[in-house]
């Protein structure tokens, strides 16, 4: 399985299925591999790291024609990045639109929302999303709580407002996965989250308080209620990833963070670090357990 995305799929009952989007064999259509709670995973990560492909003019993912090898910091080769419909939008701040005509037209006619997401006890992030998929966007990031604070027509206006709000000292426009991993055991109360969002909205002249929506509690989507000790880190960027193992029973998944358990030891894996690599689930994996502190009491 060539990993090309970490995916949260909404279901008709308002819940989500989480897992990986992968290329299998020579298929021209990517597959979704669900990672349900309780599943035993036994994976070996293999290189080289290859281009994940590109989103065409219809927004559908296509394979890299050359199956190009890419650098450690990249997920796409140069030609696929140039062809990707969305890549140029990632760095948009609302000042100028450099997207192609079709993408620009779609963006300007779409309803967007600006939101605040709460992580852990203290972190507040401002972001923008199409209104249609904002709930999915929140769980993709692993937010504990989130609320819509404004609505706009067109992504350019939304990015412009997000950029202005992001200059405030008490919010951020991005959250590192490593910071999220350190906050898996901490979460603000609903009242505290409501207070954080309300205080931010009332503190800026850029927003109208009447445009603020309800604060949504997203914790029920992640399945981490049984997490009772800090997970150990699976991998650090300075380590080689080729040949590393992922093994254990799935405890839960929060954004791109997968938490597994062997005996009493929890491990957190940032699945975005697998993008471009191949997962082999057929190789036997040797289990080397590490006792947790609680085993000695």
Strand order of the largest sheet: 11-14-13-12-4-15
How many H/I helices?
6
Strand content: 25-35%
* Mean pLDDT across residues: 93
- Helix/strand order, N-terminal first: EEEEEEHHEEHEHHHEEEEEE
Overall morphology:
globular
How helical, in percent, are the residues? 10-25%
The biggest sheet, with number of strands, parallel, antiparallel or mixed sense and barrel status, is:
6 strands, mixed
Number of strands: 15
Q: Give the count of structural domains.
A: 2
Q: Poorly predicted ranges (pLDDT <50, ≥5 residues)?
A: 289-297
Give the terminus-to-terminus CA distance: 41 Å
Tell me the radius of gyration.
Answer: 20 Å
By secondary-structure content and strand pairing, the structural class works out as alpha+beta
Task: Give an overview of the whole structure.
- With 297 residues, this protein is an alpha+beta fold.
- The protein has 2 domains: 137 residues, no CATH class; 119 residues, no CATH class.
- It is built from 6 helices and 15 strands.
- The strands form 4 sheets. It has a 6-stranded mixed sheet. A 4-stranded antiparallel sheet has the order 8-7-9-10, with helices on both faces. Strands 1-2-3 form a 3-stranded antiparallel sheet.
- The relative contact order is 0.17.
